[in-house]
Amino acid sequence: MKNLRVILFSTLALFFIAGCNMQNKKKDSEKEQTQMQDEAQDAIANLRDELKDVKEEIAEAIKDKPDDMKRTVNEALDNFDDKVDKFRDKAEESGEKINEKTEEALEDLQKQSKDIRSKISDFGDKTGDELKDFMADVKTKLKEFGDKLDNI
Fold it and tell me: pTM value?
């Protein structure tokens, strides 16, 4: 009878210890997940800060004359592409996953960047009213692009 009590007590003690250990692992996993989410949010915040430069460059480009605007816009879009590439590379190296909303926003901005590049490469020999309309359209697209940079 005494042996039965020892076995029963030992079994209960093992279950108790195992249960406590499971709770500690769960807490560690939750902490790790929270830390990963915090790191991802920090990376996105850093990207937002870096993209402010691009927005400022675009705002300046809108004020430029057509020839200067083409050069300035291409430089700003190159800067944008570089920063997005670095962001993605850093996320890949660290094993962080870019959240779906941010990834969709970046893909949309990259598509819009290509559209703007295509548009400004077409202005060539436009003059008079055609040039004014063209420039107004490009400036609208640039403003929309700059506004979307704020929403990443």
Answer: 0.66
